[in-house]
Amino acid sequence: MIRLYDYPMSGNCYKVRPLAAFLGIELALIPVDFYPGRAHRDAAFLAINPLGQIPVLEDGDLRLRDAQAILVYLAAKYDGTRTWYPSHPETMGKIGMWLAFAERITATASAARLHDAMQYDFDIERCRAEAHAALQILDEHLWFAEAGGAAWIATNDHPTIADIACFPYIMLSEEGGISREDYPAIRRWTDRVKGIKGFITMPGIFPR
Amino acid sequence: MNDRVSMHPALAAYRHRWIVIARTADVPAGHLFHGRLLGEELAVWRNNAGHINVWENRCPHRGVRLTIGSHLGDQLQCRYHGWRYATGSGGCVHIPAHPNETPPARIGVKVFRALERSGFIWASTEEPSSEPASIAHLPADHHPLRSAIMRAPAEVVAAALLRHAFAPAGGTAQRIDPLTVVVRHATGQETLRWLIQPSTVDTSIVYGVHAATVGGAWLEAAQQLNASLQSLRSTIEAQT
Prior knowledge:
The complex is a heterodimer. In chain A, strand 1, helix 1 and strand 2 form a beta-alpha-beta unit. Chain A folds into two domains: about 80 residues, Glutaredoxin, CATH 3.40.30; about 110 residues, Glutathione S-transferase Yfyf (Class Pi), Chain A, domain 2, CATH 1.20.1050.10. Chain A is built from seven helices and four strands, in the order βαβαββααααα. Chain B folds into two domains: about 120 residues, Rieske [2Fe-2S] iron-sulphur domain (Rieske Iron-sulfur Protein); about 110 residues, 2-Layer Sandwich (Alpha-D-Glucose-1,6-Bisphosphate, Chain A, domain 4), CATH 3.30.530.20. Helices cover about 20% and strands about 35% of the residues of chain B. Chain B has four helices and 16 strands. In chain B, strands 11, 12, 13, 14, 15 and 16 form a six-stranded antiparallel β-sheet that branches. A four-stranded antiparallel β-sheet of chain B has the order 5-6-7-8, with no helix packed on it. Chain B is elongated, with a radius of gyration of 19 Å.
Protein backbone atom coordinates (compact mmCIF):
# COMPACT_ATOMS: atom_id res chain seq x y z
CA MET A 1 0.00 0.00 0.00
CA ILE A 2 1.09 3.59 -0.65
CA ARG A 3 2.44 5.18 2.54
CA LEU A 4 2.09 8.84 3.50
CA TYR A 5 4.11 10.39 6.33
CA ASP A 6 1.35 12.59 7.64
CA TYR A 7 0.30 15.14 10.24
CA PRO A 8 -3.45 15.81 10.43
CA MET A 9 -3.11 19.60 10.95
CA SER A 10 -0.67 20.08 8.07
CA GLY A 11 -2.16 21.69 4.97
CA ASN A 12 0.66 20.24 2.87
CA CYS A 13 -0.12 16.68 4.03
CA TYR A 14 -3.81 17.38 3.49
CA LYS A 15 -3.14 18.20 -0.19
CA VAL A 16 -2.37 14.53 -0.79
CA ARG A 17 -5.39 13.04 1.02
CA PRO A 18 -8.23 14.53 -1.12
CA LEU A 19 -6.46 13.66 -4.40
CA ALA A 20 -5.99 10.09 -3.16
CA ALA A 21 -9.71 10.05 -2.23
CA PHE A 22 -10.75 11.42 -5.65
CA LEU A 23 -8.63 8.76 -7.37
CA GLY A 24 -9.80 5.94 -5.09
CA ILE A 25 -6.28 5.34 -3.75
CA GLU A 26 -5.99 3.94 -0.25
CA LEU A 27 -3.18 5.49 1.80
CA ALA A 28 -1.43 4.02 4.82
CA LEU A 29 -0.93 7.08 7.02
CA ILE A 30 2.24 7.16 9.11
CA PRO A 31 1.78 9.84 11.78
CA VAL A 32 4.63 12.31 12.35
CA ASP A 33 4.40 14.35 15.57
CA PHE A 34 5.06 17.71 13.95
CA TYR A 35 3.84 19.81 16.87
CA PRO A 36 4.78 19.90 19.67
CA GLY A 37 7.06 16.87 19.15
CA ARG A 38 9.06 18.27 16.17
CA ALA A 39 9.52 14.66 15.07
CA HIS A 40 10.14 15.89 11.50
CA ARG A 41 13.51 17.18 12.75
CA ASP A 42 14.53 13.88 14.38
CA ALA A 43 17.49 11.98 12.95
CA ALA A 44 15.12 9.11 12.08
CA PHE A 45 12.90 11.34 9.94
CA LEU A 46 15.84 13.30 8.45
CA ALA A 47 17.01 9.97 7.05
CA ILE A 48 13.67 9.83 5.18
CA ASN A 49 13.65 13.51 4.15
CA PRO A 50 16.86 15.48 4.71
CA LEU A 51 14.84 18.71 4.37
CA GLY A 52 12.92 17.78 7.51
CA GLN A 53 9.53 18.46 5.92
CA ILE A 54 6.27 16.57 5.60
CA PRO A 55 4.61 15.04 3.66
CA VAL A 56 6.69 12.20 2.24
CA LEU A 57 5.14 9.53 0.05
CA GLU A 58 6.43 6.00 -0.47
CA ASP A 59 5.13 3.81 -3.26
CA GLY A 60 7.13 0.63 -3.63
CA ASP A 61 10.77 1.68 -4.04
CA LEU A 62 9.86 5.28 -4.85
CA ARG A 63 10.18 7.87 -2.12
CA LEU A 64 8.96 11.43 -2.84
CA ARG A 65 9.03 14.58 -0.75
CA ASP A 66 7.17 17.85 -1.47
CA ALA A 67 3.36 17.95 -1.65
CA GLN A 68 3.33 19.35 -5.19
CA ALA A 69 5.68 16.61 -6.48
CA ILE A 70 3.49 13.99 -4.83
CA LEU A 71 0.36 15.40 -6.49
CA VAL A 72 2.11 15.29 -9.89
CA TYR A 73 3.14 11.66 -9.36
CA LEU A 74 -0.19 10.35 -8.08
CA ALA A 75 -2.22 12.11 -10.80
CA ALA A 76 0.16 11.04 -13.59
CA LYS A 77 0.32 7.44 -12.41
CA TYR A 78 -3.13 6.64 -11.01
CA ASP A 79 -5.59 8.87 -12.90
CA GLY A 80 -6.41 6.79 -15.99
CA THR A 81 -8.53 9.63 -17.41
CA ARG A 82 -5.66 12.18 -16.98
CA THR A 83 -8.12 14.91 -15.96
CA TRP A 84 -6.26 15.89 -12.75
CA TYR A 85 -2.97 16.39 -14.60
CA PRO A 86 -3.80 16.49 -18.30
CA SER A 87 -1.04 15.49 -20.69
CA HIS A 88 -1.48 18.65 -22.75
CA PRO A 89 1.63 20.85 -22.94
CA GLU A 90 -0.04 24.20 -22.37
CA THR A 91 -2.09 22.90 -19.47
CA MET A 92 0.97 21.20 -17.95
CA GLY A 93 2.85 24.50 -18.16
CA LYS A 94 0.00 26.35 -16.47
CA ILE A 95 -0.27 23.70 -13.77
CA GLY A 96 3.48 23.93 -13.12
CA MET A 97 3.14 27.68 -12.76
CA TRP A 98 0.29 27.41 -10.23
CA LEU A 99 2.03 24.59 -8.30
CA ALA A 100 4.89 27.05 -7.76
CA PHE A 101 2.31 29.66 -6.75
CA ALA A 102 0.93 27.19 -4.18
CA GLU A 103 4.42 27.09 -2.68
CA ARG A 104 4.25 30.90 -2.40
CA ILE A 105 0.95 30.62 -0.53
CA THR A 106 2.60 28.12 1.80
CA ALA A 107 5.58 30.42 2.38
CA THR A 108 3.28 33.30 3.35
CA ALA A 109 -0.19 32.19 4.57
CA SER A 110 1.00 28.91 6.10
CA ALA A 111 3.90 30.70 7.76
CA ALA A 112 1.44 33.18 9.31
CA ARG A 113 -0.60 30.25 10.65
CA LEU A 114 2.51 28.55 12.10
CA HIS A 115 3.34 31.86 13.80
CA ASP A 116 -0.14 32.28 15.30
CA ALA A 117 -0.97 28.67 16.16
CA MET A 118 2.40 27.03 16.80
CA GLN A 119 4.59 29.92 18.04
CA TYR A 120 6.97 29.99 15.06
CA ASP A 121 9.29 32.99 15.02
CA PHE A 122 8.34 34.65 11.72
CA ASP A 123 7.88 38.30 10.71
CA ILE A 124 4.09 38.06 10.95
CA GLU A 125 3.25 41.42 9.36
CA ARG A 126 5.42 40.59 6.35
CA CYS A 127 3.90 37.09 6.06
CA ARG A 128 0.40 38.54 6.06
CA ALA A 129 1.19 41.35 3.61
CA GLU A 130 2.82 38.93 1.16
CA ALA A 131 -0.06 36.46 1.55
CA HIS A 132 -2.54 39.23 0.70
CA ALA A 133 -0.46 40.16 -2.35
CA ALA A 134 -0.62 36.52 -3.52
CA LEU A 135 -4.37 36.26 -2.85
CA GLN A 136 -4.93 39.45 -4.84
CA ILE A 137 -3.14 37.85 -7.82
CA LEU A 138 -5.21 34.66 -7.60
CA ASP A 139 -8.50 36.52 -7.12
CA GLU A 140 -7.85 38.55 -10.25
CA HIS A 141 -6.88 35.41 -12.18
CA LEU A 142 -10.02 33.57 -11.07
CA TRP A 143 -12.31 36.56 -11.80
CA PHE A 144 -11.15 36.74 -15.40
CA ALA A 145 -11.11 32.94 -15.69
CA GLU A 146 -14.80 32.94 -14.65
CA ALA A 147 -15.58 35.80 -17.02
CA GLY A 148 -14.08 33.70 -19.81
CA GLY A 149 -16.03 30.60 -18.78
CA ALA A 150 -13.36 28.74 -16.79
CA ALA A 151 -14.23 27.36 -13.36
CA TRP A 152 -10.74 26.22 -12.29
CA ILE A 153 -7.28 27.68 -11.86
CA ALA A 154 -5.64 26.08 -14.91
CA THR A 155 -8.56 24.55 -16.80
CA ASN A 156 -12.15 25.22 -17.84
CA ASP A 157 -14.26 22.23 -16.86
CA HIS A 158 -12.41 19.81 -14.60
CA PRO A 159 -10.28 20.69 -11.56
CA THR A 160 -6.58 19.79 -11.60
CA ILE A 161 -3.82 19.30 -9.05
CA ALA A 162 -3.24 23.09 -9.28
CA ASP A 163 -6.61 23.62 -7.56
CA ILE A 164 -5.79 21.01 -4.90
CA ALA A 165 -2.34 22.50 -4.25
CA CYS A 166 -3.61 26.07 -3.79
CA PHE A 167 -6.69 25.21 -1.74
CA PRO A 168 -5.57 24.17 1.79
CA TYR A 169 -3.54 27.17 2.96
CA ILE A 170 -6.05 29.58 1.42
CA MET A 171 -8.84 27.84 3.31
CA LEU A 172 -6.78 27.92 6.54
CA SER A 173 -5.67 31.55 6.08
CA GLU A 174 -7.83 32.93 8.89
CA GLU A 175 -5.85 30.81 11.37
CA GLY A 176 -2.95 33.12 10.45
CA GLY A 177 -5.04 36.29 10.70
CA ILE A 178 -5.55 36.59 6.94
CA SER A 179 -9.17 37.36 6.02
CA ARG A 180 -10.57 36.31 2.65
CA GLU A 181 -13.23 39.01 2.75
CA ASP A 182 -11.57 40.99 -0.06
CA TYR A 183 -11.38 38.03 -2.46
CA PRO A 184 -14.87 37.13 -3.70
CA ALA A 185 -13.66 35.17 -6.75
CA ILE A 186 -11.42 33.05 -4.49
CA ARG A 187 -14.35 32.41 -2.15
CA ARG A 188 -16.55 31.19 -5.01
CA TRP A 189 -13.71 28.92 -6.19
CA THR A 190 -13.22 27.43 -2.68
CA ASP A 191 -16.94 26.58 -2.75
CA ARG A 192 -16.45 24.80 -6.07
CA VAL A 193 -13.48 22.83 -4.67
CA LYS A 194 -15.60 21.77 -1.69
CA GLY A 195 -18.30 20.69 -4.14
CA ILE A 196 -16.03 18.16 -5.93
CA LYS A 197 -17.53 14.68 -5.54
CA GLY A 198 -15.67 12.82 -2.80
CA PHE A 199 -14.22 15.98 -1.19
CA ILE A 200 -12.80 15.38 2.29
CA THR A 201 -11.98 17.92 5.00
CA MET A 202 -9.25 18.43 7.60
CA PRO A 203 -9.44 20.17 11.00
CA GLY A 204 -10.18 23.87 10.34
CA ILE A 205 -11.77 23.26 6.92
CA PHE A 206 -15.52 22.78 6.91
CA PRO A 207 -17.54 20.91 4.31
CA ARG A 208 -19.88 22.95 2.10
CA MET B 1 -31.54 49.93 14.69
CA ASN B 2 -28.23 48.46 15.80
CA ASP B 3 -27.81 49.04 19.50
CA ARG B 4 -24.47 47.26 19.92
CA VAL B 5 -22.29 49.65 17.95
CA SER B 6 -23.21 53.18 16.98
CA MET B 7 -22.62 54.00 13.33
CA HIS B 8 -19.73 56.30 12.48
CA PRO B 9 -21.05 59.82 11.61
CA ALA B 10 -19.33 59.71 8.21
CA LEU B 11 -21.31 56.55 7.37
CA ALA B 12 -24.62 57.61 8.92
CA ALA B 13 -25.19 59.97 5.98
CA TYR B 14 -25.63 56.90 3.72
CA ARG B 15 -27.92 54.84 5.91
CA HIS B 16 -31.19 55.69 4.10
CA ARG B 17 -29.69 54.94 0.72
CA TRP B 18 -29.84 51.85 -1.45
CA ILE B 19 -26.20 50.83 -1.76
CA VAL B 20 -24.71 48.20 -4.04
CA ILE B 21 -23.22 45.35 -1.97
CA ALA B 22 -22.40 42.72 -4.61
CA ARG B 23 -22.78 41.76 -8.24
CA THR B 24 -25.48 39.21 -9.03
CA ALA B 25 -22.68 36.86 -10.14
CA ASP B 26 -20.97 37.22 -6.75
CA VAL B 27 -23.76 35.18 -5.15
CA PRO B 28 -24.25 31.99 -7.18
CA ALA B 29 -26.70 29.31 -6.04
CA GLY B 30 -25.61 27.67 -2.79
CA HIS B 31 -22.96 30.30 -1.97
CA LEU B 32 -22.77 32.19 1.32
CA PHE B 33 -21.33 35.59 0.40
CA HIS B 34 -19.47 37.54 3.08
CA GLY B 35 -20.09 41.26 2.57
CA ARG B 36 -20.02 44.49 4.51
CA LEU B 37 -22.12 47.64 4.47
CA LEU B 38 -21.60 50.79 6.54
CA GLY B 39 -19.52 48.79 9.00
CA GLU B 40 -22.05 45.94 9.32
CA GLU B 41 -20.91 42.46 8.32
CA LEU B 42 -23.32 40.80 5.93
CA ALA B 43 -24.23 37.22 5.04
CA VAL B 44 -25.77 37.28 1.56
CA TRP B 45 -27.39 34.17 0.05
CA ARG B 46 -30.16 32.95 -2.25
CA ASN B 47 -32.87 30.48 -1.39
CA ASN B 48 -33.80 27.67 -3.80
CA ALA B 49 -36.08 30.01 -5.76
CA GLY B 50 -33.24 32.54 -6.20
CA HIS B 51 -34.66 35.08 -3.72
CA ILE B 52 -31.80 37.12 -2.24
CA ASN B 53 -31.30 37.40 1.53
CA VAL B 54 -29.10 40.11 3.06
CA TRP B 55 -28.59 39.34 6.73
CA GLU B 56 -26.35 40.45 9.51
CA ASN B 57 -23.42 37.97 9.50
CA ARG B 58 -24.00 36.94 13.06
CA CYS B 59 -25.86 34.05 14.66
CA PRO B 60 -28.02 35.56 17.43
CA HIS B 61 -27.18 32.58 19.63
CA ARG B 62 -23.40 32.94 20.11
CA GLY B 63 -22.40 35.56 17.55
CA VAL B 64 -20.66 33.18 15.13
CA ARG B 65 -20.43 34.29 11.48
CA LEU B 66 -23.25 32.73 9.48
CA THR B 67 -21.09 32.69 6.33
CA ILE B 68 -19.11 29.74 7.75
CA GLY B 69 -22.42 27.88 8.14
CA SER B 70 -24.34 25.64 5.76
CA HIS B 71 -26.72 26.58 2.96
CA LEU B 72 -29.71 24.25 3.28
CA GLY B 73 -31.72 25.58 0.35
CA ASP B 74 -34.40 27.59 2.11
CA GLN B 75 -32.63 27.81 5.44
CA LEU B 76 -29.19 28.77 6.65
CA GLN B 77 -27.63 26.71 9.44
CA CYS B 78 -25.07 28.03 11.90
CA ARG B 79 -21.85 25.99 12.03
CA TYR B 80 -21.56 26.24 15.80
CA HIS B 81 -24.73 24.73 17.34
CA GLY B 82 -26.80 24.07 14.25
CA TRP B 83 -29.49 26.71 14.76
CA ARG B 84 -31.42 27.19 11.51
CA TYR B 85 -32.91 30.40 10.12
CA ALA B 86 -35.57 30.76 7.42
CA THR B 87 -35.19 32.59 4.12
CA GLY B 88 -37.10 35.89 4.01
CA SER B 89 -37.87 36.48 7.69
CA GLY B 90 -34.54 35.32 9.17
CA GLY B 91 -36.59 33.71 11.93
CA CYS B 92 -35.13 30.78 13.87
CA VAL B 93 -36.91 27.57 12.83
CA HIS B 94 -34.84 24.83 14.47
CA ILE B 95 -32.63 24.42 17.54
CA PRO B 96 -30.99 20.96 17.60
CA ALA B 97 -30.71 20.95 21.41
CA HIS B 98 -34.53 21.20 21.56
CA PRO B 99 -35.60 19.23 18.50
CA ASN B 100 -39.25 18.88 19.52
CA GLU B 101 -39.89 22.52 20.40
CA THR B 102 -40.77 25.44 18.15
CA PRO B 103 -38.15 28.16 18.69
CA PRO B 104 -39.54 31.37 20.24
CA ALA B 105 -40.66 33.85 17.58
CA ARG B 106 -38.39 36.57 18.98
CA ILE B 107 -35.24 34.65 17.93
CA GLY B 108 -34.09 35.68 14.50
CA VAL B 109 -31.23 37.05 12.44
CA LYS B 110 -31.22 40.77 11.71
CA VAL B 111 -32.49 41.17 8.13
CA PHE B 112 -31.63 44.08 5.84
CA ARG B 113 -33.78 45.46 3.04
CA ALA B 114 -32.50 44.07 -0.22
CA LEU B 115 -33.25 44.15 -3.91
CA GLU B 116 -31.60 42.73 -6.97
CA ARG B 117 -31.66 44.77 -10.17
CA SER B 118 -29.57 45.24 -13.29
CA GLY B 119 -26.94 42.66 -12.35
CA PHE B 120 -26.33 44.02 -8.85
CA ILE B 121 -27.55 43.38 -5.30
CA TRP B 122 -28.51 46.46 -3.31
CA ALA B 123 -29.19 46.84 0.39
CA SER B 124 -30.11 49.51 2.88
CA THR B 125 -29.47 49.64 6.61
CA GLU B 126 -32.51 51.85 7.29
CA GLU B 127 -35.78 52.59 5.50
CA PRO B 128 -34.55 53.85 2.11
CA SER B 129 -35.93 57.22 0.99
CA SER B 130 -36.44 56.16 -2.62
CA GLU B 131 -35.08 53.98 -5.36
CA PRO B 132 -32.01 55.89 -6.52
CA ALA B 133 -31.27 57.03 -10.03
CA SER B 134 -28.18 54.84 -9.95
CA ILE B 135 -30.44 51.77 -10.21
CA ALA B 136 -33.19 53.06 -12.44
CA HIS B 137 -31.02 54.41 -15.23
CA LEU B 138 -28.39 51.73 -15.60
CA PRO B 139 -27.69 51.16 -19.29
CA ALA B 140 -29.85 48.27 -20.48
CA ASP B 141 -27.04 46.41 -22.23
CA HIS B 142 -23.99 46.46 -20.00
CA HIS B 143 -21.23 44.34 -18.51
CA PRO B 144 -20.13 44.46 -14.87
CA LEU B 145 -16.40 44.96 -14.30
CA ARG B 146 -14.18 43.46 -11.62
CA SER B 147 -14.73 45.43 -8.44
CA ALA B 148 -11.82 47.07 -6.60
CA ILE B 149 -11.50 47.30 -2.84
CA MET B 150 -9.85 50.52 -1.72
CA ARG B 151 -8.61 51.44 1.75
CA ALA B 152 -10.11 54.93 1.64
CA PRO B 153 -13.39 56.62 2.64
CA ALA B 154 -16.18 56.63 0.02
CA GLU B 155 -15.97 60.41 -0.28
CA VAL B 156 -12.26 60.25 -1.19
CA VAL B 157 -12.88 57.43 -3.69
CA ALA B 158 -15.79 59.26 -5.35
CA ALA B 159 -13.74 62.44 -5.72
CA ALA B 160 -10.81 60.50 -7.19
CA LEU B 161 -13.05 58.67 -9.68
CA LEU B 162 -14.54 61.98 -10.77
CA ARG B 163 -11.07 63.52 -11.17
CA HIS B 164 -9.49 60.51 -12.86
CA ALA B 165 -12.63 60.04 -14.97
CA PHE B 166 -11.53 57.23 -17.33
CA ALA B 167 -13.42 59.35 -19.85
CA PRO B 168 -12.85 58.98 -23.59
CA ALA B 169 -11.38 62.02 -25.41
CA GLY B 170 -13.88 64.85 -25.22
CA GLY B 171 -15.97 62.87 -22.71
CA THR B 172 -17.21 63.96 -19.30
CA ALA B 173 -17.58 62.53 -15.81
CA GLN B 174 -20.41 63.51 -13.49
CA ARG B 175 -21.25 62.55 -9.94
CA ILE B 176 -25.02 61.97 -10.15
CA ASP B 177 -25.35 61.12 -6.45
CA PRO B 178 -22.83 60.83 -3.58
CA LEU B 179 -21.99 57.21 -4.49
CA THR B 180 -22.33 57.20 -8.28
CA VAL B 181 -20.08 58.59 -11.01
CA VAL B 182 -21.24 58.45 -14.64
CA VAL B 183 -18.80 58.78 -17.56
CA ARG B 184 -20.14 59.89 -20.92
CA HIS B 185 -18.79 59.98 -24.42
CA ALA B 186 -18.57 63.39 -26.17
CA THR B 187 -21.88 62.46 -27.85
CA GLY B 188 -23.53 62.24 -24.42
CA GLN B 189 -23.82 58.47 -24.54
CA GLU B 190 -22.94 56.72 -21.26
CA THR B 191 -19.81 54.56 -21.49
CA LEU B 192 -19.04 53.79 -17.85
CA ARG B 193 -20.65 53.98 -14.45
CA TRP B 194 -18.91 53.63 -11.09
CA LEU B 195 -20.96 52.55 -8.06
CA ILE B 196 -19.33 52.99 -4.65
CA GLN B 197 -20.04 50.80 -1.63
CA PRO B 198 -18.94 52.31 1.70
CA SER B 199 -17.94 49.05 3.45
CA THR B 200 -16.51 50.71 6.53
CA VAL B 201 -15.50 54.26 7.38
CA ASP B 202 -12.15 53.75 5.64
CA THR B 203 -12.81 50.97 3.12
CA SER B 204 -14.82 51.31 -0.08
CA ILE B 205 -15.60 48.96 -2.95
CA VAL B 206 -15.89 50.30 -6.48
CA TYR B 207 -18.14 48.44 -8.94
CA GLY B 208 -17.92 49.35 -12.58
CA VAL B 209 -20.52 49.01 -15.27
CA HIS B 210 -19.28 49.13 -18.82
CA ALA B 211 -21.67 49.87 -21.66
CA ALA B 212 -21.60 46.93 -24.04
CA THR B 213 -18.90 47.06 -26.67
CA VAL B 214 -19.13 45.38 -30.02
CA GLY B 215 -18.36 41.67 -30.29
CA GLY B 216 -15.81 40.05 -28.02
CA ALA B 217 -14.07 43.30 -27.08
CA TRP B 218 -15.70 43.40 -23.65
CA LEU B 219 -13.25 41.12 -21.82
CA GLU B 220 -10.29 43.05 -23.18
CA ALA B 221 -11.88 46.35 -22.10
CA ALA B 222 -12.63 44.83 -18.68
CA GLN B 223 -8.95 43.86 -18.27
CA GLN B 224 -7.75 47.33 -19.18
CA LEU B 225 -10.24 49.00 -16.84
CA ASN B 226 -9.28 46.59 -14.06
CA ALA B 227 -5.63 47.60 -14.48
CA SER B 228 -6.57 51.32 -14.47
CA LEU B 229 -8.77 50.92 -11.40
CA GLN B 230 -6.04 48.99 -9.51
CA SER B 231 -3.58 51.73 -10.40
CA LEU B 232 -5.99 54.38 -9.12
CA ARG B 233 -6.36 52.29 -5.97
CA SER B 234 -2.59 52.38 -5.38
CA THR B 235 -2.56 56.15 -5.89
CA ILE B 236 -5.48 56.73 -3.51
CA GLU B 237 -4.10 54.37 -0.85
CA ALA B 238 -0.68 56.06 -1.00
CA GLN B 239 -2.36 59.41 -0.25
CA THR B 240 -4.59 58.28 2.62
